[in-house]
């Protein structure tokens, strides 16, 4: 696989994957297609804009003509499919975009790959369609229920997770019906650089730095498994290189945390950074830590979201056993790196918050 098409490559996980892949692969070609909706940001790719092996195309994965042209022009032999609407709250408020992108868009991409790679019933050698999915398709776990495995029945509870479940089924069907060489990964909650600040960790960070409330659903007791985004990128690379066609792999961090504990830990980390670096108080005077106050005073419990899943947990034994993959970051090391990235990339998240990145 030498010519990758990465969908949604200007988004959070996609952009991290693009950086990761180009650092480790000196030859070949990587083409990003991204519609640059609210979550897509060209600034996420600015450091590699001039890379000789890189091309960016602004476009929608539901555009069949554009996909056909890209497969032909770039001789694409591998698709890594990140493009998705992914925020549960937004899916509750407006599910239509989730169906269009996650279901219809995935179907158009599958059709394009089949048309490009299969001639007269014969498939090109060494091609792969990798589909990136989520643990949310499995539904919700109780506190004492075993973690999700690849055999866990699907039970999505939001328009977002239902649309991702539908896309997973389409990918599987194209493999079983037509022979499309596919792999799928279902990951736990990611965090790290370029994370759009509507999600829990980046939202808490930027709000704390600006002295704004830290909104926590319910009592903050919902549990999530957290995976540092660079580890997720490594897992996808391993699946592309050694994963078996037709297989699904769960990718998790083995880091289950209650939401409220995450928020309190972030507050403590920021307080330590302020204590160690006096310049932070001048840069972020509205943060309670700038005046020696506790940041967790900003925590504000808010009404729970409709259908809020209680707990997600990934059993990643299969990818560990079959492909030898394990995360390199603990949650403590990964979250410290994340805090430091946001402190050193203030212009990036300021542009996101102001909407300047879209102009």
From TrEMBL:
Q: What is its EC number?
A: 4.2.1.46
Q: Which terms in the Gene Ontology molecular function aspect does this entry carry?
A: dTDP-glucose 4,6-dehydratase activity
Cofactor names from the entry are: NAD(+)
Q: Which residues form the NAD(P)-binding domain?
A: 5-337
What is the top EC class of this enzyme, as a single word?
lyase
Tagged with keyword Ribosomal protein: no
Gene3D superfamilies, from UniProt? NAD(P)-binding Rossmann-like Domain, UDP-galactose 4-epimerase, domain 1
Q: Which SUPFAM superfamilies match?
A: NAD(P)-binding Rossmann-fold domains
What does it catalyze? Answer: dTDP-alpha-D-glucose = dTDP-4-dehydro-6-deoxy-alpha-D-glucose + H2O
Q: Which keywords does this chain's UniProt record carry?
A: Lyase, NAD
Q: Which is one Pfam family of this protein?
A: GDP_Man_Dehyd
NCBIfam families per the record? dTDP_gluc_dehyt
Q: Which family does it belong to?
A: Belongs to the NAD(P)-dependent epimerase/dehydratase family. dTDP-glucose dehydratase subfamily.
Q: What is this protein called?
A: dTDP-glucose 4,6-dehydratase
Q: Which organism is it from?
A: Steroidobacter flavus
